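Shipment paperwork, digital attachment
Item: protein structure file
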Amino acid sequence: MTSPAPTARAYRRLGVEERRTQLLAAALSLFAHQPPDEISLDDVAEAAGVSRPLVYRYFPGGKQQLYEAALRSAADRLEDCFAEPAAGPPTARLARVLDRFLAFVDEHDTGFSALLRGGSVAETSRTTSIVDEVRRSAAEQILLHLGAEGAGPRLRMMVRTWIAAVEAASLIWIDEGKQPPAADIRDWLVDHLIALLVATAATDEETAGAVADLVAQETAAGAVGTLARRLAPVVGGASHLL
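Attachment content:
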């Protein structure tokens, strides 16, 4: 009795975009947890289950081109983190934005850290431009939620300062073993923005108007009301300075 011939393993040739997406996903997964300097095209090919020549076929510029494409993909995801429907109290929207952002940082910890700290041989003017684009997009989204799309220099500078603080806090959070919990970092960053807005409003009429609009949309149980109650004893102790 003869044995049946072995069944050939089914093989599906991927289309150009499907294959490129597959290679980018493999690269992004590797860059998320290792500095780009430590990853080779062989590593990407192995992670994707393909040959090195196939990787070169889609990315003839080698690892640098692949890294920039993966970075562009990550940047698109980061920009999506800051997009939020304009419904409900602004601080509640901001909390959801930060939840998504911190989840991204958690998922791509090493790559995020290497990207923002710089110094990699993979860093170029193009990679720096991609990162700056994310920062500008994030700032525009925050200004949108503040109802200040056409903000002047003081308010715009304040928001960009806060974006820088979010980045710095994220890097420190990674260094500290992701402690305290992400939810605590989120709440602290929301409070940080409120405090910056109030401090800037003291000397900038435009920011004062943005703060008034924000407060009008908040609830007593929201972030602004909660922070105000927590600060009341502190501010009360300085009443002799008024």
